[in-house]
């Protein structure tokens, strides 16, 4: 998630943290004020919700959609005050699946797409005119695609420059591609095959989705996929795989989590759990080239950028790392901010 530099030196940041005894020590959703001048983060308000593992702002920044990794999954929408000093529950909806861990805007207005990691479902949710979740429009069971495997969809992303919704499935070693009809329902239209037992978790693409980069949790690698132009023999979407690349330059086990392409599409950032680092790759050569890597708190699950700053959710380190990217290397910008079991970071647009 990239946020343009705001005119004011202060940005509102939302974080989600695991709360249940078996998973974490957090309090739910917290709103922060990030002062970009003195590089401090001040807590503004907290909404106590169970296991909010992913957050998504509405386009205008007035609403915050919260995916709760519960059984069943819950989707809760908060109306956030203009100054970020408070929030109220606008609506909530119990979904079909369990273990929800991600949400993205659908291709059709007034819809959200939620991935249920535990149950293997992808769900389309309808929002009313105020933006509250009111109904489940469609449910796809990705377990059914490969009966010998268990589906674990982790992320849904609209591929830029296309009419495709991409869902990375860690259990199936696939990125499934969907189209969404005007009514909001989704239909499988293609797939990207990742290496066997690689575990695709999150993905990022350039502005035309000519290249899609996938962070593979089980193999500790990045795989790049190049889009192939449609032909009469292959009319649907298709991608060819490049050679897998290690996501970290450090030795030992690595379980990459989040991945993003820089605003100018000349660098790629990856969060690495195991070595507990953020790595930066140059995209100027034929293959991504590691150019910088910096240590952060334990188990960096997610990160987000605010202009030149990068905020890292170190889940087991109970902290937010504040980094700076100068265009060539990553550096520490400020002391870490205490944040127990933080799982997701979402700057207000």
From TrEMBL:
Residues 235-256 are annotated as: Disordered. It holds the Pfam family Lactonase. GO terms for molecular function: 6-phosphogluconolactonase activity. PANTHER family: 6-PHOSPHOGLUCONOLACTONASE (PTHR30344:SF1), 6-PHOSPHOGLUCONOLACTONASE-RELATED (PTHR30344). InterPro entries: Cycloisomerase_2 (IPR050282), Haem_d1_sf (IPR011048), Lactonase_7-beta_prop (IPR019405), WD40/YVTN_repeat-like_dom_sf (IPR015943). This is Putative secreted protein. Belongs to the cycloisomerase 2 family.
